[in-house]
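Retro notes
What went well: the complex prediction finally ran end to end.
Inputs used:
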Amino acid sequence: MIEVTNLSKSFDGKQILKDISTVFEKGQTNLIIGQSGSGKTVLLKSIVGLHQIDEGDIVYDGDSFVSMNNSERRRLRQDMGMLFQGSALFDSSTVEENVRFPLDMLTDWSLEERRDRANFCLERVNLKNVNHLFPSEISGGMQKRVAIARAISLNPKYLFCDEPNSGLDPKTAIVIDELIKELTQEFDMTTIINTHDMNSVMGIGDKIVFIQNGVKEWEGSKEDIFSADNEALESFIFASEIFREVREYHRKVKK
Amino acid sequence: MIKLLFLNKKSGMLYHLGKYTLFLKKVFGRPDKHSVFFNQLIREIDKLGINSLGIVLVISIFMGAVVTLQTAYNIEMPFIPKYTVGVAARDSILLEFSSTMVCLILAGKVGSNIASEIGTMRVTEQIDAIDIMGINSAGFLVLPKVLAMIFITPLLVLISMGVGIFGGYLAGTLTGEVPPAEYIYGIQYGFRPFYIIYSLIKSVVFAFIISSVSAYWGYYTFGGALEVGRASTKAVVTSSIFILLFNLLLTQLLLA
Ligand SMILES: Nc1ncnc2c1ncn2[C@@H]1O[C@H](COP(=O)(O)OP(=O)(O)O)[C@@H](O)[C@H]1O
Ligand SMILES: [Mg+2]
């Protein structure tokens, strides 16, 4: 479980996040949604400590991130896996080397053991026979899988995904979403996913936090989202024709 | 004007000098896995050093040739012996050309390479991917480059000296301006080994400037491809200026 309390963050005097508090449960896929530029990436990177926050705290299963010293933070980082928006694979390393990287750097395992673990992770994301290819030689969807395999290679307790299906076709996007959800349940991770894709919200949204201009506007489950009484949220969701129709349908069914 | 240049909070020289100092502290901070580090170092020596050998050879041979011919044309007086051309060419090559010239060229080639590589890693979040694992990304990415440059640049400068002097020999002989025997006598006449040491000391300092300053611009890139290009230009310009500045300082310090 990750608890965020009164988190604020600004860059050069420009406030990006204002007083955000929420809780992300274990074993669930928690979604942060909002328009482009609303501060989702900054929020996620503030939670994992890539950005230093101005105010507030992030509590990882009872341990306050703000009051940790450097070595405690390093230890916590080994329990974190992160999937970046553009996959962020190392382009001069092969697929296997990418997945092995955290193991090479942070474990004392033999090469044999590290290889086995990398192969296990690659198989878990349904990738085979690509070990020796370079990231530029595989498709965007496969790159995402490699990045997921790298993120779970150290068996993390916390998984963070920044727009995991951006740049993917709708079908591949669903496959990636489902994969993240499966892994979350299988390894009982606390997973936080940034997205602006309503398909993901309806597909895998156990909990949804909606932010707009750096402020938390609404939170709840996907079941609540259609009946939510929040103007900003409505205009975000119903920007798409299809969801307007879904709403009409819901209303009719209720009557 | 002065205020803009030095004291501007976000772009002034003092701001960058402070940030650069903190960056160096990170680069030389807690190292991670030694075995991985060693592999990185070998890779960088190959990529930054061995790959620069070609351009160093070409520049050096032409530079030696031009210096020799210009000196020869300038002392066309009968009472000055021809071997002085060899002396003058040798001293300019050993003292100045092979260190400063070669390092300025390296600032262009290696500097832009380092800044754009690290800058690309920054904007594609590869650096974040390293940081999130609790690995010191500045140390991991930059230290091997700095050490590789410090190791390989003096060697390149030494090679440049030899090739430059040989270029002078070729030019003098082929044009008939300086007879071979005179040139060879000249390059040995009053030779001071300290000139070589002096140049090597300079080259180590320049290597450090090129690698660390370029890495600094790359590491703090923010944005996209356009900003990576800008970082790489800044890397070349800033490291060239600092090379010239330190050339002056070290000359005062070592030769005065
Ligand atoms: N390192 C940074 N320095 C300054 N401003 C930043 C930085 N990172 C993000 N921002 C700004 O924060 C705002 C929110 O960005 P972001 O979190 O990337 O949005 P989202 O991920 O929701 O699309 C944007 O206006 C962006 O320009
Ligand atoms: Mg984003």
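What we learned: Chain A touches chain B at residues 12, 45, 48, 50, 73-78, 80, 82, 84-86, 88-91, 101-102, 104-106, 150, 154 (CB under 8 Å).
What to try next: split runs per interface for comparison.
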